[in-house]
């Protein structure tokens, strides 16, 4: 937008200056012609009596005075002629032959000169004063140059001035644009319209109204998902307990059906837990106002997962030797990330295979498991909700989506690799924590 405005304004300015210069040159040409004609006429009128008097005296002093050459170039040349056209006297740069114009008072033109003729009252002497057209063209060219040359300085100066003015004028628009660009699901605060000009107030007001409606809709959606997942916990747990009790009381031939019911209820409980985590992730948790040591959180999650049937004896934690792992990260969000990555690694790796957790010195956490490599083209899609890889293991397809959402809100990055770096197979999920402030 700035480029288009600069080009438009500078083009209009340059074209206007050129048109004004052309009109000015036309006016000056006409005015210069009048000034030069007036000068030639006044010179001839004042010179004629002096020349006539000197010629009629015919004294040696007069002849010497009339014949004395002038020094330097002459701007005007003249000739004194009798009524027969013979040249009696001429300026030292004038030709000896008479001017090729009739002996008639007034102005006459040749190809190179404009000549003014005056005659004495007796009619015996004619004075012709010539002004070269080259002199007039030189004056017009110098005046035209004086008008056009400033454009060479004016155009670059105008470009710089217009850019500075436009950029300064567009600062409120830039501020509004950047403020709107920072809005997302975790930042729906109203746009600050206090420093905006009057013309932008309706835009800021409309954006704030839209943000308010969007915030209300998101809050209603998150509240519904969170409340639904939370409220489902108790009845699902009760139904799962009843299914387990029923399994002990029914005949053996009905046990497979009860197992299916138990599995379905377990999957439903897991799905409700993931939905609850997703709603918490979208609520904006992730950043902490204070620096927190995350190693105790990591160790607590690993210990809890190691006690489960799925992770018993399989998780191997490799801690750094240089002390704590500190960052401005919400511990609850960090715990959800590690738990989901561990569950994903344990679920989608061969039974009883190890899962390694490495805490590197460069503030990254790597969770590596064995298994058949995944198609690299599929890796970017695994963070999409309800997207699952080529696996027969149970799952909701929400784990990596939750991790990716929380990682962005923690200003961290999630990198998925398969096969795991340094191995021929397996899967690695790497979290790079933000730098410590």
Automatic annotation (TrEMBL):
Q: How does it sit in the membrane?
A: Multi-pass membrane protein
Q: Report the residue ranges that make up the Histidine kinase domain in this protein.
A: 227-437
Q: Give the start-end ranges of region Disordered.
A: 415-437
Q: Which UniProt keywords apply?
A: ATP-binding, Kinase, Membrane, Nucleotide-binding, Phosphoprotein, Transferase, Transmembrane, Transmembrane helix, Two-component regulatory system
Q: EC class of this enzyme?
A: transferase
E.C. number: 2.7.13.3
Q: Which InterPro entries match?
A: HAMP_dom (IPR003660), HATPase_C_sf (IPR036890), HATPase_dom (IPR003594), His_kinase_dom (IPR005467), HisK_dim/P_dom (IPR003661), HisK_dim/P_sf (IPR036097), TCS_sensor_his_kinase (IPR050428)
TM ranges: 146-166
Record field: catalytic activity: ATP + protein L-histidine = ADP + protein N-phospho-L-histidine
- Residues covered by the HAMP domain: 167-219
Coiled coil start-end:
none
Compositional bias segments (type: Basic and acidic residues): 425-437
* Localization: Membrane
- Sorted alphabetically, which SMART domains does this protein's record hold? HATPase_c, HisKA
PANTHER family, per the entry: SENSOR HISTIDINE KINASE YKOH, SENSOR PROTEIN QSEC
Question: What is the protein named?
Answer: histidine kinase
